[in-house]
Amino acid sequence: MMWNMSARSADEGRSFLAKKGGGTKKGELLLDERVNIYSDPLNKMAPSMTWTGSGLAMKKTDWIKNGVVENMRYGRYWAQEKGVDPVPYNGRFIMDGGDATTQEMIKSTRRGILVTRLWYIRSVDPQTLLYTGLTRDGTFFIENGKIKHPIKNFRFNESPVIMLNNLETLGKQYRIDGNMVPVMKIRDFTFSSLSDAI
Question: Which domain holds residue 147?
Answer without folding.
Answer: 102-195
